[in-house]
Give the backbone structure.
Amino acid sequence: MGGYGLAAAEDSTESESLLPRSDLLEGEPLYGESSQLNDDGDVVTSAWQQGEVTEVADTQVTVRSADGTEWTWTLTEETGVTSDGDAASTSDIAVGDTIRVSGRRSGDERTALQVQDPPMRLGARLEGRLENLPDDIRERREERLSAWTQSL
C-alpha cells in the first residue's frame, strides 16, 4: 500500500501527476508526496518540494514552488544539507536560494530530512541511488516494482 506522485509544471496553469521517472518529466519539478505502510501498520508520508526560499528562521524554512505553492519545513539537527554537492549546514540556507527539500509530513507539519542547494536534476539523483543500492535492497525494489506493474 503506497503510492508515488509528482507534479510537474508545463505552464503556470497546468500540472499533471506522474510516476517519478525522469524520462517522463516535462517542465519544472514542483512538489510531491508518497505514503507507505510501515512495519507497525502506520502510514508514513514522505514529501518533497523544489522552489525558492522565501523565509528562513532558526528552525524553519519556507519554500515557494513555481506554481505558488508555499510550504514551511521544520529544520532539525538531523536535517542534512548539501550545497553544490558538498556538506553544508542549515545556517547556509538563504532567502532567494533555489532548493529541493525532502522529508516527512505529519498532518500539516513537514520536517526536512534533506536539503539540496541547488537541487540536483531529479533523474540523476534517482539514477545514482539505484546504482549504489546493496544487492538485497535492489532485488526487493525490483520485486516490488514488478508486482506493482503487474497490478496495473
